[in-house]
Amino acid sequence: MKKNAIGVVAALIVLLIINFASGWVYTRFDLTEDQRYTLSQEALNTVEKFEQPVIVDVLLEGNLPPEFLRLKTETRQLLEEFASKNNNIKFNFVDPLEDAENIEGTLTDLQALGLKPAQVTVEDNGKVSQEIVFPWAMVNYKNKTVKVPLLKNKLGASTEDRVNNSVQNLEYAFTDAFAKVNLTEKKRVAILKGNGELDDIYLADFLTSIREYYNIGAITLDSVANNPQGTLDQLKEFDLALIAKPTEAFTDAEKYVLDQYIVNGGKSMWLIDQVNMELDSLLNQSGTAMALPRDLNLTDFFFKYGVRINSNLVNDMYFTQIVIALGEGNDSQYNPVPWYYHPMVFSKNDHPINNNLEAIRFQFANSIDILDNSNKKTILLSSSPLSKLDGTPKQISLDPIALNTPPDKERYNKGNNPLAVLITGKFTSAFANRVKPVALKGSLEQGQENAMLVISDGDIIRNQVRNNRPLELGYDKWTNNYYGNKEFLINALNYLLDEKGLINIRNKKVAVPLMDAKKIADQKSYWQLINIGLPVGLTLLFGAFFNYFRKRKYGA
């Protein structure tokens, strides 16, 4: 008896010690197979910097469809993990549509803030209804607010894929937002002008989107003719140069200034059209136009870095649509038709830049040849296996009969053509062992580790315009479709300039197990019987046996 008492007292003492220690030592264990709640070191480094409260408002509360309930749960658990690393992070879930009397006004206010709702079709017992959900969060710190999209849509994605894509993106989305609100020093991006690049109104949405990360300035290469050294010195003040669809040839002096900027460590993004062809060129009485090679005088420049952009057009059976008018006058009808020169490109999900993206729209893209040199070339985007290459010059037509005639599939046998290539390594000057067009101070023929991105379509960054106002990049006003152009380009820019490796969080793979909706519908009655009928039946059976044995033992 005494030993039992000692054991009880010892157990109580141990429990008290554990309870006391738990108030000082906090530990969480991630037992998930994919370690989805174990934050990456980059995420930890971001949240450790906060010395004042960070308020996160998540707009996922109220009566939510099942897939959004799962997204809400995953979001809450991830934010709990962030909060466990820094108690300055506070979060709460709110229902933006709680005020039923003023729903329309609330919807207008939220959309004015750029928070687009998701319309979800809910099916329950054969009844179909439409629900409006705002899958967004707002991260507030000091006087800054950053919007966090929680839902990742992908064309043709199932419910399970949509939830998986969204959950997989959560850590990066919140880490990126935390980094933005605490950003004190911004890197600088130069928008190059002077060679017929896209006007600012067609770059407006992309530039507006990256202002949260970077300071932006414009540099005109026209000054190279009179002051090449001054232009290079000015360019060196920027961390990255963006060249968006030039249409006029570069001089050798301009190329040399850009070459020395790159060899000296400057990052660059080249969005190049090697063929002169626009959809607007077809809007004439004949509905035809000639696609001609465009000479930008950059072939030798890119050749040295290990790629060649060809003067051809990618013709792809995985296409995006265009809208044309059929008929005349009041009888005109605007119909979407297949347009094989606007490929719909699906990413391989094999790199932080292209991972977990919506389909990307290219317009009159060219193929890229990969050349053998010491630099590493990573193909980020390619045409589909069912594509071919059309040489130029070539006459392009909007003939309605041809557009609605299915093409010969067997001719589409030149697929998987590179369209976006990331080049990394120690760059050798394109002017090495050559006569230099101008004299530059401190010129180098061999540089340190660097990176550049070459994309064979200048319109990949071009947003459409309505009533002289820029629309969101990736949105097609004619078909009302959204493409992943903006996210791809922002990912690429972040990757090129991200020394802290936040973009690498996008490589994290998360698999969320979901119930089979078809099996649930087929076996609904069975499981209702198991979960409701079986417990009731067992209770009645137990009562019957209890009464039987009671009567047998006591006779009444």
TrEMBL record:
This is Protein involved in gliding motility GldG. Residues 186-492 form the ABC-type uncharacterised transport system domain. It comes from the Bacteria. Signal peptide: none annotated. It holds the Pfam family DUF7088. The keyword Transmembrane applies. The keyword Transmembrane helix applies. Residues 33-139 form the DUF7088 domain. The chain crosses the membrane at residues 526-549. InterPro entries: ABC_transp_unknown, DUF7088, Motility-assoc_ABC-rel_GldG. Keywords: Membrane, Transmembrane, Transmembrane helix.
